[in-house]
Amino acid sequence: MNEYTLLVLAAGMGSRYGGLKQIDQLGPNGETIIDYSIYDAMQAGFTKVVFVIRKSIEKDFRECISGKYEGKIKVEFVFQELENIPAGFTVPTDRQKPWGTGHAILMAKDKIDGFFAVINGDDFYGKNAFVSCVDYLKTLTLNDKNAYAMVAYRLDKTLSENGTVSRGVCEVDTDKHLKTVIEHTKLQQKDGQIVNINEDGSVKLMDANSPVSMNFWVFHPSIFTHLENMFTDFLKNNIANIKSEFYIPFVVDALIRSHQVEVKVLTTDAQWYGVTYKEDKMLVQNKLLEFTTNNDYPTPLWNK
Predict the structure, then answer these.
(1) I need a labelling partner for 121 at 20 to 30 A (CA). Which of 12, 66, 95, 101 fits?
(2) The pTM is what?
(3) Is the pLDDT of residue 66 over 90?
(4) How far apart are CA 3 and CA 8, in angstroms?
């Protein structure tokens, strides 16, 4: 039996949300969004989870998940810290932001030796996303080192009612392979349409059916070598910019353009839920309660 690892990115600072949304209790019995992701991943066939966190939240994070997954799935932790950079570089004294999702994934290099999926800790992806992921992985072997994948959501199913959001809008070829991801940083619903507010203030009308990346990726461990090389190049060019981040979509896009990998786009009609803003919390709580009422999930989700 193949073993698949779920890598959960949970080191974010939650500045717009106003707190540690990774461990906010949103389910009817105090469950976090991460709890639902782990449950869905286990049901789909994942056997191990690695959490990327910061040392400053380790105590609270471990207390939140203590005992929940014991005996159900293997759990490991890695840390994303500003000082975790290659030799020869020095962190600017006034930098506070993490180095980005590409750096976060790189932190798990020594914990993963097979195919793995990457998700955000504060996004609810739905069961189908994890099932689609494992179904695809079952078609591969470790010799398929250039075979990556991404679970794509419809743009209109990924918005917040409480402010603009950033989404990577995908271009896909006829074989359902990813061509490129174009970041749109101020997407919102306005007057019954979806628009992006460009940097110059102009407004771009968007297609509601556009596939977008919600940071649900599937990687062969070959990604770590690419990340190491590209992170070093990133630091050479950007270390003085205290707001620059090494995003995983930029890495994937560069690998596609240089024909080093192929990224299969796995589509889903599922509704994404997340807590970008504090005001999103009630909507997510109501949906999780609805899922439980409809017997989509057991209650409580975990029996200690």
Answers:
(1) 95
(2) 0.92
(3) no
(4) 16
